[in-house]
Amino acid sequence: MHIEKPVVRIGFNPLTDCASLVMASVLGCDERHGIRLVLSREASWAGVRDKLVTGELDAAHALYGMVYGTQLGIGAQRHDMAVLMHLNRNGQAITLSRQLMAQGAVDGASLAALIRNERRQYVFAQTFPTGTHAMWLYYWLAAHGIDPLRDVRAITIPPSQMVYNLAEGHMDGFCAGEPWGQRAVMDGIGVTVATSQRIWPDHPEKVLATSRAFADAHPNTCRALVAAVLEASRWIDASDQNRRAAAEILAGGALVATDRAALLPRMLGQYEDGMGHRWQDEHPLAFHQGGAANYPYLSDGIWFMTQLRRWGLLKTHPDYEATARTVTRVQLYREAAEMAGVALPADSRRSSTLIDGRVWDGSDPERYALAFPIRQR
Asked: Does an H or E element contain 230, and which?
């Protein structure tokens, strides 16, 4: 197989769920498939998007919804994108300040009561307007009767700056990937009131993204890249010992740049919320799950588009099915999975029940998007 581009520049943000890209390089999975990954630590998701569009990055650890936002021209010039695979499931968190906790906000219901009774502007941060964290934050707030666009103010902050801004009182809470939720708890700055897996058990999270132009021009490179990352994902999920080793590497200054104590617990599914509760999560951060966490389900991509429509980021309904099929490189993934010896699901759609009891199975997305009582009208 001719590798069109043997050296592949990969962008990532400093988060626990970049682990499979890092370990693909560290373990030599890339070299086994005839490529070499050059990792590039990025400062923001907007930077990742822009560098994918200009070609400064070949591929990247990316927010699922950000890819579709770019494909549909939300917030920037439209550009054709490609999702090569899913990198992980679960493992994000919604954090409230300890000041809110002291006022009685310890979950969604009590936060809603506080907002009703103590009138002021409440500010919550997410990491990118069309990204996963915005969608988890909005969905969770709305499930508890809080309109995220009217009852509170939503702002955008890079994930690594969340804890600092919460500590400085610039906001009341945030939704971001780990280790920043755990860091806020460890530092006594915030409390975890919801994990993203409570909002949607085994939800899709980050993806391996590239531009459509790169995927079209470098199909063999992309297959090798996916196969290498699949092997690394399988290795991470194989044992707690492997997760510990990955956490040690991620904690290095050039990668996530926080200490191992902030990275490891939630990487192992061990949670504490800062309010005296500890638990082993039933749906922890997963990198592989026998390939189920990596398969790019069409229904997952369509869900993000329904939420972009729900919150008015899309003014009209897109062609949900056609857009998902254009963006998602299912056949390329299937070929790479065969190269890596990874099992494939029988169907390109799956069914899930979210925190508000609504079932999502990929069918009738237009009706689904308009069925929520709290939405942008």
From this structure: helix 219-237
For 169-191, give the DSSP string. TS-SEEEEETTHHHHHHHTTSEE
pLDDT one-digit tens code per residue, 170-227: 999 999 999 999 999 999 999 999 999 999 999 999 999 999 999 999 999 999 999 9
The whole-model pTM stands at 0.97
Q: What share of the chain is helix, strand, coil (3-state, %, to 5)?
A: 45, 20, 40
For 103, phi then psi, to 5°, come to -90, 0
Instruction: Answer yes or no: are the C-beta atoms of 166 and 85 closer than 8 Å.
Output: no
In whole angstroms, give the CA distance from residue 137 to residue 142.
9
For residue 201, say if its preceding peptide bond is cis, omega within 30 degrees of 0: no
> Do the Cβ atoms of 337 and 290 come closer than 8 Å?
no
DSSP 288: -
Q: CB under 8 Å to 136, separation ≥6 — which residues?
A: 92, 94, 175, 196, 199, 200, 203
DSSP string, 16-45: GGGHHHHHHHHTTHHHHTT-EEEEEE-S-H
Report the C-alpha gap between 242 and 49 in whole angstroms.
Answer: 31
